Amino acid sequence: MLNINNQDEVGRWVQKLIDENNLHAFYTSSYWLNLRNEVLREHKYECQECKKRGYYTRADHVHHVQYVRKHPRLALSKTYMFQEKEYKNLIPVCKRCHETVCHPERLRHNKQEPLTEERW
Question: What's the Cα-to-Cα distance from 69 to each of 11, 45, 51, 55, 111, rounded to whole Å?
């Protein structure tokens, strides 16, 4: 059984999944699903990005500030330390904010190529 309080152990497990090209197993694990639900409940299912702009949207995603592929040790951590200061690592967001604010690079891949050389 995985000790989710041991970042090194979590990091080895998640890195193994990354190496096996099976990160889906992380996102369907009871460890992640339980933590995800806990974070959503703690923030009353409110999108934190929309809330910054002054309106309410229901959060249905939990964004990793420190990306899982880049920082596997932090995959199950609500917070992380940087220069002796603690920051939130898991942030509830709506689908729109998850794509536009958290992962704008995904939107660039969905753009269609121009129909002609003139870029019409």
Answer: 10, 25, 27, 31, 24
